[in-house]
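pasting for the record
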Amino acid sequence: MGLNQSQSKGVFLSITNGKLVRQFSAPTEKSVSRVNKMGREVHEEFYDSMDGWLTDIKTKQSEYGKFWVITLKDNETYYNLEMKYASGYATSFLKALPNADLSQFITLSPKLIVDGDKKQSVLFISQNQKGLKHFWTKDNPRDLPPMVKIKRKGIEEWDDTDRMEYLENYVKDNILPKIKPTLQDVNEGDDTPF
């Protein structure tokens, strides 16, 4: 029996301006220091991509809203990537995820595409150095609910509530069972009761 690291521990990352960000409590050789919105000095390192085996996807609620947490494992280390629940990063990741072979490494690469005053945030998934296409597309949305135009406080805006709930349920029903070992897998070849 070996020692194992909890998935809730390990390296925590977020995405800012198309880069993966890791915060440190003290400056490092590669970190950039800044004062955050709460007036606290933070030290951050920036990365273009991350890769590993997908070991978990979950949502969490905090005082800042709802987030996705994607966990990848590379050798001994777990990497936990947190992103806003209905962000462009999350949506693009979730739309391509059904096309991934979850028995292989995946590479995640965030990008911020700026076109004039419009910004589009995207999280690309690739395997074997090939980008994965979206499973749900504009031309073939399958059963993905469309965004709905609503009026809130006199202002029209696009609402993606049904779409995000559908994607969350899809992950629970179709993705998590593929990455979570079953009891039979864990005990295969072992006569010890679980």
